[in-house]
Structure formats: structure tokens, C-alpha cells
Specification:
241 residues, two-stranded antiparallel ribbon, single chain, 12 helices, Serine Threonine Protein Phosphatase 5, Tetratricopeptide repeat, mainly alpha, 2 strands
Length: 241
């Protein structure tokens, strides 16, 4: 996913540079004050990005938005910087501003869902992941829907969605990374999606007091991924119950 974000970010930079660069190069056309400011803010932004001065880059983007409120390229770049820098509150707030203009923008929906989840705004995160799953049909987002449903205590819906996802043969080949915490230094566990779903199902059974079924799910997950630490911990916590 990081590579995808990087490529999208670079494309947005080119667009932002081109939006006012064409006007700057057109010597036969007099620039309006807003366009003149746009050219200068764009130049400031690109210079700041080259030296990784993200604070100045954000200031330049806000300047662009002040004179060209409808500049979605500037807004997109600003959201991307906030997401990549872990500034989740700013990312989420700007995503909510951007989405009404581009309701099916997959990248912004993804940024919005992840930042909302990190802010523990789980209802907002669920809304984003549900839209993403409908739009993309990607199993990853189906898993995210089920995972957030579990966090919200919507156990019956979560169990239903987990069972539906487990019927898809692609869960045996797709992979997902699970994190114990959200710190920047946290190391995730890269496991088969099927193993992650079985682990989630085991937790659901455990919460319901059905320890026999929970142990079975954890063991099935461990058969697929013998080094799956979360599944092993889940199993050990209930093995004597």
C-alpha cells in the first residue's frame, strides 16, 4: 500500500504544478491576482517538497486553497501529507471536506477510513470501509468492515460477514497485515487473509463464551500460519477454559 500512496502522491504533485504552470508560461496572457498567487504558492510547494519541508509545503497548499478554493489537487496533496505524516485529525477533517466533491475517490476513502479508525471514530471508519468494499469488491476491505463491526460490538453482523468472506477461495491466497498497536514503531504480522478471518472468528466465539469453537478457529489459523503470534496468544488465553 505504501508504494501505491507514493505513486498517487507524485502524480498529484505533477498535476498541482501543471495547474498554474501553464498560465505562468503563457506570456501572451495577463495573469489575474489569484493566478499569480497560485503560481507562486505552487513554486513554494514544489521547492518545499524537494527538501522534505512538509510544514512549509502545507503552508503553501493552504495558500493555494485560500485563493483557489476549488483546487482539489492542492487539497488532495494536503490530505496525503497529513496521512503519511500520521496527522490523523487533520487528515480526517480534510477527507470529510473532500469526499462530497469526489464520493467514489478510493484513495481518499481509504485515508478517511484509516485515520478515523486511528482516532477511534469507528462509525466513520465503518462507513468508509463499507463504501470501499462496495466500490472495489476487494476482500481486504471486507475484512476491515468485519473487524470494525467487531470493535463496535456488532458481533452478529461481524460473524455473518466473516462466514461470507471465508467462502471466497481467494482468502487462501490474499494476505493482510495485522497490528497489535498503532504506534509508528509497531511491527505488524503479515498473514493469509483466511488466517486473519479465523483469528477474528475465534475472538468472536471467545467473547460469546464458546471456547470450544474459539480454540478450533485459533488452531485452524495456526495451521495456516504457524508463526501467527496473535492466534497463538488467543489460543493460550482460553486453552484451559
Amino acid at each position: 500500500m505504501k508504494i501505491v500512496y507514493a505513486l498517487i502522491f507524485f502524480f498529484a504533485l505533477l498535476q498541482s504544478d501543471g495547474a498554474y504552470g501553464q498560465k505562468k508560461n503563457n506570456e501572451n496572457k495577463k495573469l489575474s491576482t489569484a493566478d499569480y498567487l497560485g503560481v507562486n504558492y505552487t513554486a513554494q510547494f514544489n521547492l518545499a517538497i524537494q527538501v522534505k519541508d512538509y510544514q512549509s509545503a502545507c503552508s503553501a497548499l493552504y495558500g493555494l486553497l485560500a485563493v483557489h478554493e476549488s483546487d482539489t489537487n492542492a487539497l488532495f496533496n494536503l490530505i496525503t501529507i497529513y496521512f503519511q505524516r500520521g496527522q490523523n485529525e487533520q487528515c480526517f477533517m480534510l477527507c470529510r471536506q473532500y469526499l462530497p466533491k469526489f464520493r467514489d475517490n478510493i484513495t481518499i476513502l481509504d485515508f478517511c477510513g484509516k485515520s478515523a479508525e486511528l482516532l477511534e471514530r469507528y462509525t466513520d471508519a465503518l462507513e468508509c470501509y463499507q463504501k470501499l468494499y462496495i466500490i472495489t469488491k476487494q476482500l481486504y476491505y471486507g475484512y476491515q468492515v468485519a473487524n470494525v463491526e467487531n470493535t463496535l460490538g456488532r458481533k452478529a453482523e461481524c460473524m455473518q460477514h466473516v462466514d461470507e468472506l471465508l467462502l471466497d477461495p481467494h482468502v487462501a491466497t490474499n494476505r493482510v497485515t495485522l497490528y497489535v498497536d498503532t504506534s509508528s514503531s509497531a511491527k505488524g504480522e503479515d498473514v493469509l487473509l483466511k488466517a486473519a478471518l479465523l483469528y477474528l472468528k475465534g475472538n468472536l466465539f471467545s467473547d460469546l463464551g464458546n471456547y470450544v469453537s474459539a480454540r478450533q478457529c485459533f488452531l485452524e489459523a495456526l495451521k495456516l500460519e504457524p508463526e501467527f503470534g496473535l492466534a497463538l496468544t488467543g489460543f493460550n488465553e482460553i486453552k484451559n477454559k
